Amino acid sequence: MPASSGPPGRGFEAPLLIAVAPNGARRTLADHPAVPLAPDALAATAKACLDEGAAMLHLHVRTPEGRHTLDADTYLAATRVVRRAVGRRMVIQITTEAAGIYRPPEQMAVVRAVRPEAVSLSVRELAGGDAPESGLASFFSWLARARVMTQIILYDVPDVFLWNDLRRRGVVPEGPWFPLFVLGRYAAGRVSAPRDLLPFLGAEDGMYPWCVCAFGPRENACAIAAAALGGHARVGFENNLSLRDGSPAQDNAALVRQVAEGARALGRRLAAADEVRAWFPDRRLEKPR
Description:
The chain has a single domain (15-278), classed as Aldolase class I (TIM Barrel). Helices cover 37% and strands 15% of the residues. The protein is built from 10 helices and 10 strands. It starts with 17 loop residues before the first strand and ends in an 11-residue tail after the last helix.
C-alpha cells in the first residue's frame, strides 16, 4: 500500500522504523555484559544503534542499585545524556512498564512530569485496574493535546479488542497512537514466531502505523516479517540476546544491523527520526494543560 493511500507511516512504501530496546526492566549484566544500565552506557548504545539504522530508543532507566524505576528526574537526566550523544537523530521513548511495582496513577504521573517526546504504555495495565475510566480518558486526552507519540503495547488479540473499544466509546480520542504488537511471552520456553503476527493483523483496524517486538532468537525473523507486511520493528536485549543463527549477539547494535540488512534485501529503506516525527502532527501546536 503506498504511503499516500493510507495513514502516514503505514505500508511497505513507508520507510521502516527500527527501534531498539536495549535493556528493559529486568536484564542485568549477569544476563549479558553489554546490557546498558547507566546513562552513559545507554548513550553509547544509542549512538551505536543509530549508526546501524535505528531511529528510536526505547528507554528504561534504573536506580543506582540497578532496579527498574519510573522516577521522572532519572528519566530526564538519562534523556539529557542520550541527547548529547545522538542529538535529534533518534526519537527517545520512555516506558511506563509496571514490572510488578507501579500502579496506573504512578505510571500516568511520570509521563505528565517528564513530558517526553514519545512514550510506551500497556493498555492492559492502565485500563485493567480499579482506577475509574474517567482518569484514563483524561490521561489519553492529555497525551493527544501534548502530541506525545504514544506506543500502545498490545499483548494479544483481546488487548486489541480492548483498545478498539476504548476508542469506539470515546474514552481514547484520536491522537498520535502507534500500536506495538508483542509476539511471545516472558514465560520459560516460549519464543516468538512470525506467524504470531497474523492474529494481530486480523484484529487491528488499519488506522495507525504499527510495530512488532518479539522474544527469543526468532526476533529477527519476526522483525523482517513485519517489515515485509508494511509494519515496523523493535529489537534489542530487552527481549532477546541472540542473533538470527542462535549465537549470542555481541551487543544491541548487532541486532539492529540484522534488521537493516533484511530491510535492504526487501527493498525497503530505513526511516530517519524526523520522518517518524512527521507521521504524527506537531506535538507542540497546542500547549498541554
